[in-house]
Amino acid sequence: MLATTVGRNASFSLCVPATAEHMTTVRAFAGAVARRCGFDEDVIEDVKLAVSEACAGPIDAGVSGDIDLAVTDDGGALRLEVRSAPWTEPEQPSIDGALLDRSALVRTLFGDAERLDDERTTVTRFSTASHTAAGR
Amino acid sequence: MGPIDLALERKTESGWGVLAVEGEVDLYTSPQLRDAVNGMIEEGHERIVLDLTSVGFMDSSGLGVLVTALKRIRERDGSLALVCPEGSVHKVLTITGLDKVFPIHRSVAEATAA
Predict the structure, then answer these.
(1) Under CATH, what is the fold of the domain B7-108?
(2) What's the CATH number for A2-127?
(3) What's this model's pTM, rounded to 2 decimal places?
(4) Which residues of B touch A49 (CB under 8 A)?
(5) Chain A contacts of B94, Cβ < 8 Å?
């Protein structure tokens, strides 16, 4: 399912089954929205990586149902939200102090990233800096 | 191979087992990479190069495969090197600190000469 509101503060949403085969589609969607909004390739790659991690987390944990991705162009910045059934991050491999925690990686890419849990959903939210503020 | 599968090509150079990977490594495709690397380890390769030059995207699913493979190879006193030019994959290796864990080279020739 794809819903789009075009114009100022445009919002985009994508709903896919929580299965790994849809990861490519989710990344392409997020990347296309970021590109449409005028972000440079470095930010687009960061958005794709963060969305991939935020969606892979619940799928890797084995949630059922759908993953909902919402992207809003908030006047030059993007706000992204990934919503799923509740999940707990499985133990990730580590080596020599290197960090492979998905949530931590999203926070490294976007410092305002937060995770909200309640009985029915887990939501990961993060936002980009404004591309207009970056001198574009 | 389907449209979102990895292309995996094996060869041997200067005594190293080389696995060239092409595609995007994520939660869906990382098991393909894991199986290919495990196959090389189980065949007795102790020096392996993963050529990631044609990998356009990798998330922590793929990084987990690399780390698990390195642990297995270290148990055999072997070596696992990466070929990875500047770009999105190199960036994710850097921000996770894995650039200090793996030897990273600009070409297969450089990796196998190391």
Answers:
(1) Transcription Regulator spoIIAA (3.30.750)
(2) 3.30.565.10
(3) 0.92
(4) 57, 59, 88, 92
(5) none
